[in-house]
Amino acid sequence: MADLPETPAFGAAFSDEEEAARALEAGRWLFSQTCSFVMGCVSLDTLPDHDLSEIAFAGRSNVGKSSLVNALTGRKTLARTSNTPGRTQELNYFRLGPEAQDPALMMVDLPGYGFAEAPKDAVKRWTRLIMAYLRGRPALRRVCLLIDSRHGIKENDRDVMRMLDEAAVSYQIVLTKADKLKAAEITDVLARVVAETAKHVAAHPDVIVTSSQSGAGIDLLRAQLAALASP
Ligand SMILES: Nc1nc2c(ncn2[C@@H]2O[C@H](COP(=O)(O)OP(=O)(O)OP(=O)(O)O)[C@@H](O)[C@H]2O)c(=O)[nH]1
Ligand SMILES: [Mg+2]
Question: Where are the domains of the chain?
């Protein structure tokens, strides 16, 4: 992945090289701290009470949400991953940061939307839950909306983007599985996704290209998310 194109985030997110270096260091530091599973939630009334910022990882089933949580935290089995779409079936909370000390973040690994190899009723139930959570969670500071770089933005992703625009919930597009594409294909999908994202009011202008497998883009995403940590 050495020839991954530089994502626009690098230029736009930081005003100069010094600021970029500081942000990257802060991201590496925070994501090297303790990260522990807090709880899995199957309904809105069981979401945890806390005073940290929440970052949610949303996207179609199998796009690589749980793998991204593992890559960010440098842990292989923190969040359970699988080849079978529909692996994650609860809102899984992970607390990142030093114990009883700031800065810290709550990361929420969501079930996927779209096709899943699970009973229809279960898929319907968790899809309703994800949408209600995304629309109405005050602690939610940023949604990382994951898009498989081989497929680009699909119609059900657009539905979620429109819903987040209407609810004024800040979200950032993260392209996943970049290791599966050639550099020219990544440049192409990135251009299309950036152009479409620019039309959405609640979308962060920077689109980050990642691979949980090769580690591409992971440090950059760490830097951006660490900036949202509480306090
Ligand atoms: N090549 C490659 N495979 C990946 C990458 N990220 C995830 N995968 C694979 O994609 C599959 C799905 O990954 P998960 O992380 O379980 O995806 P998910 O979005 O959490 O899936 P659900 O919980 O079922 O919605 C697994 O087989 C992963 O190994 C990546 O960056 N590169
Ligand atoms: Mg998952």
Answer: 8-226
The secondary structure of residue 88, as a DSSP letter, is -
Q: Is 67 marked as a binding-site residue?
A: no
What number does the ligand 1 atom closest to the CA of 86 have? 24
Please state the ipTM of this predicted complex: 0.99
Looking at the domain that runs over 8-226, which CATH code has it been given?
A: 3.40.50.300
**Distance (Å, whole) CA 35 – CA 5:** 30
Q: Helix crossing, 65-73 with 218-226: angle to 10°?
A: 80
**pLDDT tens readout for residues 150-201:** 999 999 999 999 999 999 999 999 999 999 999 999 999 999 999 999 999 9
Q: How many CA atoms lie within 13 A of 96 on its CB side?
A: 29
Q: What percent of the chain clears pLDDT 70, i.e. is strictly above it?
A: 94
CA of 31 from ligand 1 middle (Å) equals 20
Report whether 78 contacts 37 (CB < 8 A). yes
State which of 62, 91, 143, 214 you would mutate to test the pocket of ligand 1, scoring each by most atoms of that ligand within 8 A of its C-beta.
62
Count Cβ neighbours within 10 Å for each residue of 33-68 and write b for 16 or more, e otherwise: bebeeeeebeeeeebeeeebbbbbbbbbbbbbbbbb
What's the pTM value of the predicted model, to 2 decimals? 0.95
Pairing state between β 105-109 and 91-96:
antiparallel
Looking at the DSSP bridge assignments, the partners of residue 175 are 147, 209
Q: Whose CA is nearest to atom 9 of ligand 1?
A: 64
The closest ligand to the CA of 126 turns out to be 1
